[in-house]
Amino acid sequence: MxxxxxxxxxxxxxxxxxxxxKTEKELEDKIKENEVIKINNEGTVEYINxxxxxxxxL
Length: 58
Prior knowledge:
58 residues, globular
């Protein structure tokens, strides 16, 4: 699933692909349960602690 941006407390990730979520509902559930979000950021796989996500846009 693509995201236009994900804003955390320290960073903004732009135009990333969320690898471990297929729907917005699944992403919301992961954030709610404080699970790790796995993203592809320009060819680099990164892991975001979802408790640090402030907002996002898909």
